[in-house]
Amino acid sequence: MSPRATLLHKRIRFLVWLFIIGLFISGVTAIPLQSEVHELAQHFATSTPSLMSEWLLKVDQALTDVATNHGFLFYGTDWLAFGHFMIALVFVGVLRDPVRNKWLFTFGLIACALVIPYALIFGGMRGIPMFWRLIDCSFGVIGAIPLLLCQRYVKELEASSSQSPIR
User: Fold this and answer.
1) Distance CA 3, CA 6 (A)
2) Residue ranges of the chain with pLDDT lower than 50?
């Protein structure tokens, strides 16, 4: 393998691990949702009042009500976490062979792109403030960056391997 191909493989591995870790952290944070939102709401409430602090206090109050009266609904966020973990696990295939499994980058980019209309449409239907929907949209944008770079690096790997003499 050429030095350039080795460098491209290292870059792809780094970016894929970054993406996997991001998915894992997103999933993990969905499990202790009530305590996380409570801490965040308290932090923002003690700082200057803002739309963010008002929203977080409202969400905190709703989560407390759900925990008290309908705790089983948190099972949905447990499954949300599971979905993040499974999507992260799929990307292990790219770590093994990025060229053969390059379709996963397209899959990931489609998922990242769909985050935006999903957050805007369903967030609007559920009464989620626009600033929060834009935060949700940012996950799709941020997630697309390493995937786009990986896609570019894989194309470069393919081009360099097609120019190599057959052994």
Assistant:
1) 5
2) 166-167
Amino acid at 40: L
Spacing of C-alpha 22 from chain mean position? 6
Q: 3-class SS at 11?
A: helix
Tens digits of per-residue pLDDT, 45-59? 888 778 889 999 999
- Give, in degrees to the nearest 5, the angle at Cα 103 between 97 and 106: 130
Degrees to nearest 5, angle at CA 125 with 23 and 137: 30
The letter for the amino acid at 137 is C
Query: Could you tell me which residues come within 8 angstroms of residue 109 by beta carbon, excluding any fewer than 6 positions away?
Result: 144, 147, 148, 151
Taking the C-alpha atoms of residue 23 and residue 83, their distance in angstroms, rounded to an integer, is 9
Residue pointed to by tokens 């976490």: 81
95-114: burial string, b at 16+ Cβ within 10 Å, e else = eeebeebbebbeebbeebee
Query: Within 10 Å of residue 81's Cβ, how many Cβ atoms?
Result: 19
Query: Would you list the domain boundaries of the chain?
Result: 3-162
